[in-house]
Design goal:
single chain, 182 residues, alpha+beta, Elongation Factor Tu (Ef-tu), domain 3, six-stranded antiparallel barrel, 24% helix, binds adenosine-5'-diphosphate, binds riboflavin, binds magnesium ion
């Protein structure tokens, strides 16, 4: 058995929610879609760009290129939030950046998860499972690192609030997140 085989096909939820067809903006549409049908994926935590996100107080666990390359085409670049689980630990709130990090002019698309939890130690090599349940905003370029950090802290606050809603808490029990990781 492979430990934490990287997942290439993002599965769809069997959960059913009432949808409101009057919601029509892109933002509402994508959020309605994620609540009804969240994106689930998992993979090994690898070393990222080493830009010192941790020193900025926002460590981000990076997925390998092959997981990023296999995202379905309808997962647009941008900033998302949802639930995360490291190996068989507890399920925590997370924020996720998917894209090119314009501030750093990346040539490779990346997927970085910041988990809202204080861990005792790093977890490179661990299996990270994430469930993407909401969309916050597109990726932006910023004039300074300070502005980027302020934007990310704002994302973290918005995500924390949104994840307190009953629909979001429901998704915490998503089947693939609950099973034991072999
Ligand atoms: P890298 O460039 O290697 O991704 P970071 O500075 O972004 O380095 O730190 C990411 C690493 O920090 C993760 O791979 C993980 O091992 C560790 N880490 C500790 N706490 C967290 C957290 N709350 N969220 C995400 N990663 C964390
Ligand atoms: N990088 C950008 O260039 N533009 C962004 O708008 C942006 N938003 C982010 C939002 C979140 C929640 C996270 C976790 C990262 C974001 N990043 C963004 C990526 C950031 O550049 C990367 O994590 C750096 O390594 C931080 O030092
Ligand atoms: Mg990182």
């Amino acid at each position: 058995m492979h430990y934490c085989r990287n997942l290439y096909k993002i599965s769809s939820s069997k959960l059913i929610f009432n949808t409101n067809s009057k919601m029509s903006t892109f933002y509402n549409k994508i959020n309605q879609r994620l609540l009804t049908n969240p994106f689930y994926t998992k993979g090994e935590v690898i070393h990222g760009f080493g830009r010192g996100s941790k020193e900025l107080g926002i460590p981000t666990a990076n997925f390998a290129e092959d997981v990023v390359d296999h995202l379905p085409s309808d997962v647009q670049t941008g900033i998302y939030y949802g639930w995360a689980r490291v190996d068989d630990g507890e399920v925590h709130k997370m924020v996720l950046s998917v894209g090119w990090n314009p501030y750093f002019k990346n040539e490779k698309k990346s997927m970085e998860t910041h988990i809202m939890h204080e861990f005792d130690a790093d977890f490179y090599g661990a299996c990270l499972r994430i469930l993407i349940t909401g969309y916050l905003r597109p990726e932006e370029n910023y004039n300074s690192l300070d502005e980027l950090i302020t934007a990310i802290q704002n994302d973290i606050n918005n995500a924390k609030n949104n994840l307190d809603s009953p629909d979001q808490i429901n998704l915490k029990n998503y089947e693939e997140m609950m099973t034991k990781q072999e």
